Amino acid sequence: MEQIIPVLGLFVVGTAAVVVLFWACREEQVAWLDQEKYLDTHPPINDDEFLRRCSPGVTPEVALKVRQIMSEISGVAYEQIYPDAELVRDLGLD
After folding, report:
1. Which of 80, 60, 57 is nearest to 70 (CA)?
2. How many domains does the chain have?
3. Residue 74 has pLDDT above 70, yes or no
4. DSSP the chain
5. Structural domain contains residue 67
6. What is the pTM for the complete model shown?
7. 87 within 8 A of 66, measured Cβ to Cβ
8. Neighbours of 80 (CB within 10 A)
9. Residue 17 placed within a domain
């Protein structure tokens, strides 16, 4: 019986590790698929079009700086970042 307990413990820990790894990969895959959907539906736009789509009162310099940062963090091309992009759902960031 004493020999079974360590083996059983290793089995439980190993199974838990596989489940966690599977869950983490699944979450990453879902985020990647959401980002692909976003990219398919958001063709590149220039800065002027981006600013036209921003909410009234948004400072152009701030809006374009945020666009640049979102592009760098997400890996999405600068031209495909839209003012309505959501960090988690569209760009795969969490």
Report:
1. 80
2. 1
3. yes
4. -TTHHHHHHHHHHHHHHHHHHHHHHHHHHHHHHHHHHHHHH-----HHHHHHHSPTT--HHHHHHHHHHHHHHH---GGG--TT--TTTTT---
5. yes
6. 0.62
7. no
8. 18
9. yes
